[in-house]
Amino acid sequence: MQLSTLTLLALTAVAPVLGARSPGCGKTPTIRNGEYTAQINGKSRQYIVRLPDNYNSNQAYRLVFTFHALGGNHREIANGGYYGLPPLMTGNNSAIFVSPNGISNGWANQGGEDVTFVDTMVRTIENDLCVEQSLRFATGFSYGGAMSYAWACARPDDVRAIAVLSSAVLSGCAGGTKPVAYYHQHGTRDSVLSIQMGRQMRDRFVQNNGCTRLNPEPQPNGGRSTKTRYSGCLPDKPATWVIFDGDHNPNQSDQGSNQPFGPTNTWEFWSQFQAKDASGNPQPPTQPEPTPNPPVNPPVNPPVNPPTQPPVNEPTSPKWGQCGGNGWNGPKACVSGSTCTRLNDYYWQCL
User: Fold this and answer.
1) Full-prediction pTM beyond 0.85?
2) Most CB atoms closer than 10 Å: which of 172, 235, 288, 308?
3) Distance CA 71, CA 143 (A)
4) What is the pLDDT of residue 215?
């Protein structure tokens, strides 16, 4: 695997989501498939880049960030297949995939440093490679979903859509008042991050996107997931919620299927979007393209180990114990004999 070091300025903004090809279009690229290092606020940060097969510097590609879960790393996501998305995004829908590495194997995003890291990766990649700047996406499981959410909150004009897999507001939400196209899937029996935590994330963008709330919301259909496409949303800002009868699992499949539905649902949602026009006006979502057959083997993701302690009453959980935090006045989730220790304003852990 290629390894290089890039000394970068941690700029706080990137090109807005407009119909524009990146400065790297037409250039002979220096970034290839491999691992790279960026210097952010005096810290070395690593990320892996995966180019489409037969990369063409005159074709503008989608840009997809895939964030790992707590305890994972960038290599696990890259080696595990980027959440199963590359086989689904081919031809004119091919993408440049980026797998960043979090500090201490997580995305605490203290002082917004992880958002700054994303800003820097976007700028560096787009100065060297050909990217359609209105087609930037992010996805992640658990803490990785929280980081995708934090980026959407902080940089709503820079990201076209995100896909959150069983997550909670663990990386903060600076800003968080503008619309972003939003997909979220969550299990009703999630023993690590309760479904109520996921609903909190979803409801923000249902509101921001001008969608019509549902009360009561649809429930899983036995062993099959239920997909809700919200109505009344802004033309370019849809929201989709998938609920399933299951635990904290990125590879959940429907009864009778051995294929996880996350990759196909994510691509179905993202495939609606095309480049914005020259004036920056969004082209309305199209009907999702037929989804190619998924890979025979499900994507490999970091193993999910359910907590050994039984969950306490919502909205806390034994693994992500809320000890206080930014705006948190609810009960603690620490087990007897443990101590709540502050990590940052949003993410507290029982130690």
Assistant:
1) no
2) 172
3) 9
4) 87
Compute the distance between CA of residue 243 and CA of residue 186 in angstroms, rounded to an integer.
Answer: 5
Q: Is the pLDDT of residue 122 over 90?
A: yes
Cα-flanking dihedrals φ and ψ of residue 108, to 5°? Answer: -65, -30
Q: Could you tell me how far CA 43 lies from the centroid of its own chain?
A: 23
Distance CA 83, CA 65 (A): 11
Distances from the Cα of 75 to the Cα of 60, 88, 128, 172, 229, angstroms: 26, 21, 22, 24, 33
d(CA 233, CA 24): 34
- Based on the number of CB atoms within 10 Å of its own CB, is 293 exposed (0-12), middle (13-18) or buried (19 or more)? exposed
Judge contact between 316 and 322, C-beta under 8 A: yes
Residue 223 identity (one-letter amino acid):
G
Predicted confidence (pLDDT) at residue 131 exceeds the cutoff of 90: yes
Residue 305's contacts (CB-CB under 8 Å, 6 or more residues apart) are: none
The region, left, alpha or beta by phi > 0 then psi within -120 to 50, assigned to residue 158 is alpha
Q: Tokens at residue 102, please?
A: 């979090």
Helices (H), the chain: 74-79, 113-128, 143-154, 195-208, 262-270
Closest-CA residue to 188 (of 311, 82, 327): 311
Q: Backbone phi, then psi, for 264, in 5-degree steps? A: -70, -40
